[in-house]
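Request: Show me your protein:
***
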Amino acid sequence: MYACQKISILAAAALLLGCGHYLIPGRFQPLEVAQQQTDIQGSSMKILDDGTVTFVQNRLEVSVRPMADEEINRQYPAQSTNASGPADELPSNPFTYGNWIDPRTGKAPQRLSVFKITVKNYEYPKVKFDPLTVTVESANGRRYYPWGSYDVEEYFRRFPLAFNGLGYMRFDERRDLYNQAKYPDDEFCFSGQEVEGYVVFPKIHDDVAEIAFHIPEFGLRYNFRNEPIETIDLSFRFKRDIEKVKNIDKLATN
């Protein structure tokens, strides 16, 4: 009986998707300051006009900002404006599909979810966090984990690599751009320094309207062995509007 009910539910879900219901998520924006939770003594949260959420403790600032594909494309114009080609091949921007348009929808799909983290340290001798321990938790129960260099290489290796060398050249370019832009692994931000970079996640599902971006065990003080003796856990909260459209024709004309 249970198996039959389960099959019926799956069939109904497939029918619903087949009717052409689509979700169009907007850009993530910060929740209000009062909803940005921090219980760390002497700290505060502030929100900037560009959508950045910043944790402030005296002269230490840790900022998180969700990046829009359009912004990343402007950062890499030469790698985002290839004239034509299938999505798996072009363009060579590792974070977005660039100017490639899905002919079914008339829009550029989202490839990945990218967040920019900036640390400004004018308070402690040195601070550090591990970007591979960062997580994104959605209000509807999903959890997302960041990609490292290995994940990026494996993702792009599955695309065709032409034997004439063009495919390998594009692969190398994507890998180099990612390594240059990512938040550095295992690197201290010393007193008077500012360090920034991207942390990359798989695409956050279209039905996710609210997320919490967690940075666990951010190291504030270290012993002579460079082992952390004081850490804090940080969270940054964002939301976005989601539009539901009934058919692909409307999606393509929006």
In short: Residues 2-18 form the longest helix (17 residues). The chain has six helices and 14 strands. Confidence is low (pLDDT under 50) at residues 1-18, 250-254. The CA atoms of residues 9 and 15 lie 10 Å apart.
